Amino acid sequence: MLARRTPAPLSVRSPSAKASGKASNASSVNNNSCSNQQQHQTPPAGAALGQIEAAHLLVGTKVWVADAKVLWRVGEVQSIAADRLSAQIYLPDAMEDQVQTLRMTQLFTFDASHIVDHTDVALMNNMHEAPLLHVLRQRFERDQIYTFTADILLSINPYKSIPLLYDVVGFMTRRQDAAAASGESPNSDSSAPPHLFSIAEKAYTGMKGVVPGSGTPQSIVISGESGAGKTEASKYIMKYLATASKHAAGNSSKTAASTGVHEQIEECVVLSNLILESFGNAKTSRNDNSSRFGKYIQIHYNSEGRMAGVSIRHFLLEKTRLVRPEANERNYHIFYQMLAGLDSLTSEASDPVDAERPLLLQSDVWNYTLLTRGDCVEVDGVDDATEFQQLRRCLEQLGMDNSSFQRPMFELLAAILHLGNVQFDSPSAQEAENGPDLGEDAPTRVVFPESDAGVDLEHVAMLLGVEAAEFATKMVTQTTITGRGSILEIKLTPEQAKNAMDAFCKYLYGELFHHVILRINACAKQQTASSQQSGPKPRVHGGAGASSSTAPPFIGILDIFGFEVMQRNSLEQLCINFTNETLQQQFNKHVFVLEQERYAREGIAVSPVEFQDNQRCLDLIQKPPLGLLPLLEEQMLLKRKTTDKQLLTIYHGNHLDKHASYAKPRFECDEFIIRHYAGDVTYDIHDFIAKNTDNLHEDL
User: Fold this and answer.
1) 101, β-bridge pairs
2) What counts of helices (H) and strands (E) characterise the chain?
3) In the 3-class helix/strand/coil scheme, how is 625-666 assigned residue by residue?
4) CA–CA distance from 535 to each of 29, 100, 257 (Å)?
5) How many domains does the chain have?
6) Domain assignment present for 328
7) Which domain holds residue 93?
8) What is the pLDDT of residues 184-230, one digit of tens each?
9) ∠ CA 187-188-193, rounded to 5°
10) Is the residue at 286 inside a domain?
11) Number of other residues whose CB lies within 10 A of the CB of residue 389
């Protein structure tokens, strides 16, 4: 996690315990831009960072050696070959083969600072992967899951609860006591233990400034691979910021009215997270509560440091999951929660209007195609019925009551489930059932399965609020305008009708998700207006170059889905990993490029820091006209039925053996490889075209 008390992004890096290599990437990178620049040793050309130079190796020297069981061990040089290409290394902690002959390229530099229990690994001399992973592993085994590396906080998911780790008040008290004992300010960096709350406190302090009006807007970026704990980190950061806002009330000249309004805003920040988890999170093969969308939350403050407003923006909702979840994965939580809480919905349907528009849902999840395509319907340790009741309470607290919001929302969700069960019969299938009297012009027929008892097209149309006969026609036909301006009605094949219905369901869910966020923002905006009427007015930003804007200072929190490498990687993973590539470039820019430019301006001589520039990978994916995504979009616009295999041929023809970031597997198959900053990922081309077909025809 990267924390800066400037307008530059605060970044949160969260590698999981299962991928320690990810941690090394983030940490060693930042070490090269921290205060220990004078201790940085540039490796020989072509050598790995930390690799020892044979000319400097002496008998008795301690070195780091890779180990299959514990990643790295410390050894001691016993003898050196005459050609200085290898050496005999004594490994005292090894269970067997305590003396090994190793090549010089397998030996890495050791420093006494490497075995100190650092809370900030940037304090190491000549830090590289071996000591970094050694310290992280030792701390992790002691349930110390957070470690600083200069401005970055590394977080390793423990996959268990650690008592009192997220006690906000206790954390604040312990920090104040530690500062008092040392005579330092509670807000000083040296008194801050490695913790998510320290990141949040740095952002909060930087936003407020030493004196009113001297602070700067802050941003916290949370990134890491899937399952690293980013969603939980986001929740705890917002929990801390809400608590800090409440503590600011003790030092303000507040009125009872303004206090109540600020508490509502603080509550809105916390509740919005719980609501969005239901609609935007799902169980994947890597994570039981994986965010399948990105969000940017901006929390505004008044001059006293109290929350004065909040706004949420979302991007890249994985709508494909709605109709094509992967094996061993679930659809979005809300569907399973709704079916688990069906009894409460049924018992509440006392309103005459609700009684006339029953949902006609069944509690058995296996009756719904959209919820069972991944062959996974439960999450261990999660009670969907309890989660549903919590969701409804959160909605109610934010002004989204049953009659005005919840009931229409459940009707739309029920309609999506029913439409997911629809089958489309061809004229030939109908003839086999009813006799050969239908003729060639017979339309595709809409059929609801027997398992969806009592549901028909008229009922689904009623739930959607549309006219049934017209909807029935639009489901199986499409109108187009010819070159002469006449209107032509085209009958859809069963496959075309099914694809159109999938696109319609994705559209409905995407609009519902967007509407939920709009309602959250509307609630927050209403509370913000009340806050400005009853409390201190927003301040004007001070400092050089400040504008006359009266916009309040803010803390932004960016929470995106993590880098993903699944058993089968498809278009969703390409989009997610592309987003992470873009974020990594931003990280590189702030940690390397801008830092080195700053040193140059200040006349500080430092060794040039080499880092992996991922611009070529970004160009491969996004740069028109031959980027992978532009080529995919081009095939969609050409209106010709390009197959997935043809698309793969186009990819290979433009990039294979021509682009360093592109490759294909050794054996012939329908896959291609992208060399990302985090490692190689193999993508399966199957369903790329179908998943990118997100356009509704105008009739629907």
Assistant:
1) 88
2) 23, 21
3) CCCHHHHHHHHHHCCCCCCHHHHHHHHHHHHCCCCCCEECCC
4) 44, 71, 8
5) 2
6) no
7) 54-114
8) 766 666 678 999 999 999 999 999 987 777 789 999 988 888 888 99
9) 90
10) no
11) 15
